[in-house]
Design brief:
Elements lengths: L29 E2 L8 E6 L2 E6 H4 L5 H7 L5 E2 L5 E3 L6 H10 L8 H14 L2 H19 L10 H10 L4 E6 L7 E2 L3 H19 L4 E5 L6 E7 L2 E7 L1 E6 L2 E6 L3 H11 L30 H29 L4 H11 L1
Parallel strand pairs: 2-5, 6-8, 7-12
Antiparallel strand pairs: 1-4, 2-3, 4-5, 6-9, 9-10, 11-12
Length: 339
């Protein structure tokens, strides 16, 4: 058997007949005076048996090193196995990290969290940092993904809007809910609304919750929510008369949608129960002035906050225009409305 090889990753039940139960409280065991006089060490970690060297266990200033030096008391059973009352599921990975300085980690978040806890227990700082870096990388990947919830019921929609701390923009899109034929430009405008929704998601995904509803009664309708209530609505469909029959017309009010999307940002990070927007409260975060603060100072602070909101609004408008600069009509329409 190789000195660096693990005996196996057996579970506790499979080795009970061959290996005594961990003897931390047994009179048969004895405390180690230190294992530095030996070259090899046998470890029984929750029934999982491992055979390695003192040199491997001493590579980092860890709990395992302190066991080898005798700084930490452990139980050694009559057969010479160092008994550790710990799950042995990930102990082989801990040993491999000490041997090689790096190990591949699983992508499953729960399993990665288990390995981190084992690394923290054994105080293997290199493995702890390795796990934290992997978790941060997973988090960065997760945050870069745009996830758009699909509404499946009115009850679900109400709960989502009521509990969300972000502003909410909903696009209701149900082309099949139409009694009449469409006008010639309706299909094109319907696709433009969907494309604009996707572009807004990419731009404001971290600040606004975007949802889609394909089961509602409206063919194409935008709804904007803040603090759990509807703030604005842009309906893009109407019924028109053409010769002897009615037709459904789908419009693309791009500038209006831009405007309402930017307006809804004022409700960002401001869910604080019933009441108005504290950002616009000229006296600060509460209804009363702070200690030693005059009404003039409170009003000045309120003016500064309003200016910051206005500056943020303009900055987001310019970024949005830049994002959609390939569409010259959209940029001109938004500029005209701001004037």
């Amino acid at each position: 058997m190789s000195a660096e090889a693990s005996v196996g990753g057996h579970d506790a039940g499979s080795v009970q007949s061959a290996v005594p139960q961990p003897a931390c409280h047994s009179t048969d065991g004895h405390r180690n005076p230190g294992l530095m006089g030996s070259k090899y060490v046998k470890l029984n970690v929750g029934g999982s048996l491992h055979y390695t060297t003192i040199q491997t266990l001493s590579k980092e200033d860890s709990l395992l090193q302190s066991i080898c030096t005798g700084a930490t008391n452990v139980t050694i059973d009559p057969e010479g196995w160092v008994v550790l009352e710990r799950s042995g599921r990930h102990f082989g990975l801990v040993l491999n990290f000490l041997r090689d300085g790096s190990v591949p980690l699983p992508e499953d978040h729960r399993e990665l969290d288990e390995i981190l806890k084992e690394a923290q227990f054994y105080r293997v700082q290199g493995l702890i940092q390795h796990c934290l870096n992997a978790m941060q990388k997973q988090q960065d990947v997760f945050e870069s993904v745009c996830r758009i919830p699909m509404i499946t019921s009115a009850k679900e929609e109400q709960k989502m809007i009521a509990t969300c701390r972000k502003p909410v923009v909903k696009l209701q899109n149900n082309r099949g809910n139409n009694k009449y034929s469409y006008t010639s430009n309706s299909d094109d405008n319907l696709l433009k609304n969907i494309e604009l929704f996707d572009k807004l998601v990419l731009r404001f995904n971290n600040r606004v919750l975007f949802v889609k509803d394909v089961l509602g009664d409206e063919i194409c309708c935008w709804s904007f929510y803040g603090e759990g209530r509807k703030i604005a609505e842009v309906c893009c469909t109407s019924i028109v008369y053409a010769t002897e029959k009615k037709q459904t017309k789908v419009e693309f009010p791009e500038a209006r949608i831009f405007e309402e999307t930017l307006n809804i940002l004022i409700y960002e990070n401001n869910r604080s129960g019933p009441g108005g927007l504290h950002l616009l409260d000229s006296r600060g975060s509460g209804s009363s002035l702070g200690a030693g603060q005059s009404e003039e100072e409170g009003a000045a602070g309120g003016d500064r906050r309003v200016r910051r909101i206005h500056e943020t609004f303009i900055r987001d408008a310019m970024r949005l225009v830049s994002l959609l600069e390939d569409d010259g009509t959209a940029a001109r329409s938004l500029t005209d409305r701001s004037r």
